[in-house]
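Recap for those who missed Tuesday's class. We walked through two folding examples back to back. For each one, the amino acid string is listed first and its predicted structure tokens come directly after. Nothing is annotated here on purpose, so try labeling regions yourself before you check the end of the notes.
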Amino acid sequence: PGTGKTTCAWIHPDGERVLYASTQDDPEARAKQEAEIADRESGNERRYAWDYDEHFDLFEYDRESGAYTNLTNTLGYDAECAYSPDGKLIVFASNRHAYEDELSAKDREKFALDPSFLMDIYLMDSGGRQVRRLTDVRGYDGGPFFSADGKKICWRRFSENGATAEVWTMNVDGTEQRPITELGAMSWAPFFHPGGDYLIFTTNKHGFDNFELYLVDAEGAHEPVRVTDSPGFDGLPSFSPDGNTLAWTSNRTPQKQSQIFFAAWDDAAARAALGLPDADAVPAVDPVVTAMLDNQETVPEIRVADLRHHITNLASDEMDGRLTGTPGEGMATEYVAEYFARLGLQPEGDDGTWYQSFEFTAGVALGAGNRLAAVLPEGPASYAVDAVWRPLAFSKMGKIETAGVVFAGYGIVAPAAPDQEDYDSYVHLDVTDQWVLVFRGLPEDVTPDRRQHLARHGSLRYKAMLARDRGARGILFVSGPRGGYNEELVKLAFDVSLGTTSIGAVSLADAPAAAWLATAGKDLGELQATLDTGAPMMGFALPGVTLEAEIWLDNRKGTGRNVVARLPVDGSDMHAPAILIGAHVDHLGRGQASDSLAKDDEADTIHFGADDNASGVAVVLELAEYFADLEAAATPWGGKRDLIFATWSGEELGLLGSDHYVKTWAAMFGTDHDIGMIIGACINLDMVGRLEETLVLNGIGSSSVWRALVEQSNVPIGLSLSLQDDSYLPTDATSFYTHGVPVLSAFSGVHPDYHTPRDTVDKINFPGTERIGRLVARVATKLVQAAAPPDYLKTERPQGEGRVGALRAYLGTVPDYAESDQPGVLLSDVTGGAPAAAAGLQAGDLIVSLAGRKIENIYDYTYAIQALKIGEAVEIVVERDGARQTLSVTPGSRE
């Protein structure tokens, strides 16, 4: 820009923008610059020292327009920045928190002498929003760069005294921070090779002034390897995107002036020196997985010993509960893939691998910049996030303009019902463009029948929807002294794929709520006590109280992976439609998921998931071995179509892996719905390890062949069977059924250990699981040998459209529960002959309004259906092919 100090440039992947750090917006920049130039012209020489000017900000320069954009604009040194490979994120170093936090006297004194002492690594989106701090230790963390796949960050961490530095890596969300060098020298400026399994960096291990380039593997398992051997300085290395060229800075010039050097890079030599496999080599199998598989020789026969072997391994400590996107899930999927490989199956994942990866929202955390401030009659007040207030996961993000506050009791609107009067917290209360303060939960001292009536209208999301529909700018939930909650503030927990609302939603501690209510001459406890009787109460405004907020949440992304294999019959050509046998491999980890049923004393312990669903995966592995042996035998066995064996991840988060699989096929073949031409039938095994008396087989109604086929196959097995027509199930079979595939889903029954750490191997009924495996083998054999795959029958969905409560009104829609950033409810199916089908709704429609009510998420949709009157037509608005259509639907009765 011509003004200020400028450094640390990085070119955006699109080539049109340049990121850099500069003091160009410092009001004193020009004066400081002129003074510096004059000092140099006077002949004054100073020892070189880097300047951690608190006016350094990150800027983006648009090459086409010539415009500059200040991305940070925060007091403190913001520099050492880089774009992520997809250009969506920026990682940088900053000591900004030292200017915002209250420092101890010791830290304040040290910071004045050395501003780098409190440098940390930060991440933000490329527009400068959602800034979050990734490191938080004393000492200089700086020089961060992304790996080529965008999943890792490398940086250098100085010791607290600044004498040494080591190379560190972490995941992009800040987890798994660890050093990969231990040289006890000044090791810094790391950069990933595009292959991702090694880095290059600078170190002075050979002498204080002698910096050389070294390599280290990404795991830090191998002794670092020297690259350069030149007296003086060799440092600041980076690879070209193809990994064939190295650029670095060296003063190996005749004048000993630093210049940029290029060299051809020999990746094969680097890998050999570090003991890494060739770039095209198959990655080595985790030795723990290898040991597990080598521990017992399995046989083609479906037997107890083999099932015990697989379930014990999958439900072991090492798998750590197999939560989607974690190392435990990675080990479990590697176990499955390696077993398939040993059986001689063909990989059917991405790019010829065993794995099919998918991205998902792994959790939610507070972003940077959250702020809640009030103006009260006695003056302004601000409140500490996560201590006095906390955003809710479904809140609108961004700045929420200043608004007044009104109190609306419990924030409930419940219509009258037989033997129940109506209840309305908003009678004669105008909340337009206001914050609405309400109590959590329900009135405590009413009859059970009254509570049951109000409970349908008492969730946080429902209350937020009511406030939004009445024009509120935001809603504040307070527990109150009579609430009985373990914590005053609502936990920040992510509920998978169920969308946000368009107003601010905040949990507030009792103390500020009490202070605000006092401005109206009201007492928080007395108000709650009166409301708890169930007596109606008019809401009121809080005079002289205004509130403004800025809410930023960080939706942390993760990657899960399915394992998919094919067993070709009669040669290598694909015989379709294939028969798919699958089970979900993921579970709940250490109970991080919201649907853990662990007791308080079981918090943060491994949920082993022996039955759910190591048992199902074990049966899939046994069936794969059984059929691979049949196909390898010299005697033809009559197979006419291929078998696909798959283990899905993300089932516990909402059928994410299986949904990704079917949608990938649908997109590949240009159809939105029916993949029956690819998959002829799906057999699903979910919790088949705790058989007591009866095996439940769901999906019987999805094909006319199932009942007879199952009963014939069961004759020599002799299991007691419960054959259920329902094909809309809370398991992966539903992903296939809603896309035109007949399904059969086996389930041995629920038990008290479901979704707890007590679901362990010792409770598995191994003989019963073996019998289930033998039954499925017989069913699958008949399917593979049949001249044609089973026919597909569409059945009515017997349960409510939403996930919240029973619904009397009936439309016949099947929402797509896979996560989506689109506001609205996407339909994966419409039941034939149902009111929705008669109205013209289709799979793929996005519902945005029902009966005049805005639909932003599945909760909105469920609550809207609850308000419908049977037989009375209402308008439903959908988005289809980019355009909105208004249809008329007449709800039917479910009873």
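Example two. Treat it independently of the first, because the proteins are unrelated.
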Amino acid sequence: AMEEQVVIDLEHFYQHLGKWFQHRFYPSRDGLSVFSKDITESKLTEEKIKEQSSLVRIAAEKAKLGGWNVDLKENRSYWSDEVAAIHEMPPGYAPVVEDGINFYAPEWHEKIINVFTDCAENGVPYDEEMEIITSTGRRVWIRTIGEAVRDENGKIFKVQGAFQDITEKKMAEAKSREKDLQFRKLSANVPDLIFQFTRNPDGTYFVPVASEGIRNIFGCSPEDVVDDFTPIGKVIYPEDAARVIADIEYSAKHLTYFTCEFRVQIPGRPIQWILSRSTPEKLSDGSITWYGFNADITQRKEFEDALRESEGKFRKIYEEGPFGMALVNNAYKFIMANRTFCEIIGYTESELRELTFRDITYIEDKDIGIESVKKLIKGEITVFKSEKRYLRKDGKIIWVALTVTANFEKNGNFLYNVAIVEDISGRKQSEEKIRTLNVRLQLLVEAIQKLSVSTSMESIMETVRASARNLVNADGSTFILRDNDMCYYADEDTVSPLWKGQRFLLTNCISGWAMLHKQPVIVEDIYADDRIPAEAYKSTFVRSLAIAPIRLNDPLGAIGVYWGGNYSPSEMDVTLLNTLADAAAKAVENVQLIEGLEQKISERTMQLQAVNKELETFTYSVSHDLKAPLRGIDGYSKLLSDLYANELNDEAKSFITVIRNSTLQMNQLIEDLLQYSRLERSQRRNEVLQIRQLVDSVIKINQDELLARNFKIENTIPDISIFADSGGMQIALRNLIGNAIKFTQSVAEPVLSLRLNEAPNSWIISVSDNGIGFDMKYHQRIFEIFQRLQRAEDYPGTGIGLAMVSKAMQRMNGNVWAESAPGKGATFYIKIPKPKKNK
């Protein structure tokens, strides 16, 4: 207990002294020996090291900064925990050099290898910014710093350095560049200068941000003034420089809004007046920066100078000029007004001084130009123009053209606005009339267009009914037809019923009067005109009317329009109504013409039917009466050949052969003509055809000849269905295949090719051969009846086959054409349209 008490007392004493001791206890004869050592200094050093290490660790974490080294002999890297964290690897990760390099993005591999190798071999330090790809695939911008470590012999045995994640910095730089680019794009086409202007604590100036407008204002580029204010200072007019600096200093001292007008003398240019406005802000480092704009106000200044110089003249113009002029303060109250202004608005000058501009403005136009006037007062714009309505003292609404400019004192304080007013009510009325007339003309054009394509009286009346009333802004309209000595009110469009469906004697109604006298009628008051049967109108709304005859030289009807109140139709109203009536007359004549054409078509159809009947009779006659003699000629020629062959010499036998061949050719010609005639008159029968089967059947008909001449047949037509006239298709295919066989008779290895191509709206079948071909200048001629390109002795035929193909295609709304060259064979195409799908 005594020993423990001694130790406790010693510790308490040391703590009170603020010192650290190290105690060692040894046993002895007398008890326990204590040896103490003062270690206060080492303890303080240890605490300081711990504190500094903690601060370094916190700083590294916050700055995302770590250290690394590479043992060149072992080819092994050491990464601090911060470096491993940047790579998103666990603490303690120590890769070989190649693995560490592989973290770098592919485009940076060569760069990091080069700088690391140069450092490891030659001791060249490096400080680079690159990108790595972390273990999770994330791209990270880093700053890597490396330096060589040498041994006592000067040999490099290690490379060490720092490694920092600078992604946020890079993103901030990119964002800053993007903002700068956006600023430049936004301000590129603005002639004014938008700027940030800074005064350093030492009193120097520079312009860190400036738009392209600086070229217009100060004649230099944005880059020229980033670190140097001289390009701006040297062009400020000397007499204005001190005032500009004083205003800047005042704004800096009091942090007040800066506004100043000064002159600039750019070499090679006239003197410019510049308006500068900006707002100051004091920064943490003691510098002051202004954000604002500079604008070229030379034109405004010249105008102000001219205005001051001509003040005397202005007074005379002000008092006696043709335009209304008034001076208005910033509360919109009248200060003064000239005689013309008072006449326009109807108030005396003393009465106007008790009013504001808003008091005389028509209620719907009160807000027009308010914001612009505010800008005028601030000096942000120099002139404002508009057109608006004013309310005169007598209550009449007038239109005026208004021009407002601002007047300022030399120190820039606003004085008043000068308002110049011109009464444009007449022009506005004319514009309104033109606008209304354009609308009515558009209605008339649309009505005429509809009437021009009308095919019935019903459509004519519908068009007139829909347009006549709107055309002259009437309360009703009627369409009247002349029916012998009667007026027939065929149609109407009115606010209440009139006389639709009724008939009146021409002599008993105003419409009849207009038709009988062949002239328009205008009646402003129906009860004051003797031509009007007033009793007939008492039950109606009508008070005024206008009638326009349809076809003046021989009226076939009339168009009537009506108003419920006393109305005097204008000359334009009458012109529009007469024009509509003329268009209606043409439409009626067209309908009558169409009806006459339909009658003629009916008569012509009957005639054609009679001709077709005669043609059928003729066809029968040819078939029966002409073929009978041919059979006799052929029969007797055969008898001569059979019975008297031994008595006939060779010449006589030749004659008989010629007779028989000619008879056969004549018979074939008659058969082809009959087939052509039947094709012309036969009823088209469209049906679903298996096209492959149809082609195969036609080929089979000619099978003997094809086999005998060793034809190579290339038939790629698929087994599909098409919709076509079966008879026409058989005729077309039979003639085209027959021609291919006939015109390859001199070819040693004849070829017949058949193909089908399907298009969106049709099928196209081609028949090709390798025969004699033909010149394409005859490609249209070959489809005409009796047209031949070769002699009948060489290539027998009647010259009707291709004409029948063409006729068959016409009947199916298709067509036929050919491609060929002499000696190169020929290809014939037939196009069969697909049936249209129902919508």
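Answers for example two:
The chain has 23 helices and 30 strands.
The first strand starts at residue 21 and ends at 28.
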